[in-house]
């Protein structure tokens, strides 16, 4: 029973790190230039594909290749000059 539980938790944790689709709520973007800066920083991580940034919707969506942690995402958004307020993976 304990083994099953440990395995389940490990599976859930790795899922959250390796999941393909990511949605990031971003505070502070107003225009296309903002979108460009965020796109550039996310792309620079080398771990994001299909990056789409929408200033009006205040979010970025992308797919990950390899491990990309929440703090790496927050750092990339911060380097663009904005704040990642919420990260959801599916
Ligand atoms: Cu802008």
Summarize the structure.
By secondary structure, the chain is α+β, with helices and mostly antiparallel strands. It contains 3 helices and 4 strands; from the N terminus they run αβαββαβ. Helix 2 crosses helix 3.
Task: Note the topology.
Layout: H1 2-18, E1 21-27, H2 32-44, E2 48-54, E3 59-64, H3 70-80, E4 83-89
Antiparallel strand pairs: 1-3, 1-4, 2-3
The structure holds copper (II) ion.
Distance between the termini: 27 Å
Q: What is the count of DSSP helices, taking H or I runs of 4+ residues? A: 3
For the largest beta sheet, what order do the strands appear in spatially?
A: 2-3-1-4
The ordered H/E elements are: HEHEEHE
What attributes characterize this protein structure?
90 residues, Alpha-Beta Plaits, 4-stranded antiparallel sheet, binds copper (II) ion
Protein described:
This protein has 90 residues and is an alpha+beta fold. It has one domain: Alpha-Beta Plaits (2-Layer Sandwich), CATH 3.30.70. The protein is 46% helix and 30% strand. The chain has three helices and four strands. It has a four-stranded antiparallel beta sheet with strand order 2-3-1-4. Helix 2 crosses helix 3. It binds copper (II) ion. Residues 30-31, 33-34 line the site of copper (II) ion.
């Amino acid at each position: 029973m304990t083994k099953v539980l440990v395995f389940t938790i490990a599976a859930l944790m790795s899922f959250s790190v390796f999941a393909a689709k990511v949605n990031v709520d971003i505070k502070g973007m107003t225009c296309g230039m903002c979108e460009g800066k965020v796109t550039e920083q996310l792309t620079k991580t080398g771990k994001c594909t299909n990056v789409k940034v929408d200033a009006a919707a205040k979010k970025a969506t992308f797919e990950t290749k390899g491990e990309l942690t929440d703090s790496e995402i927050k750092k990339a958004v911060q380097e663009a000059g904005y704040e990642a307020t919420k990260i959801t993976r599916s």
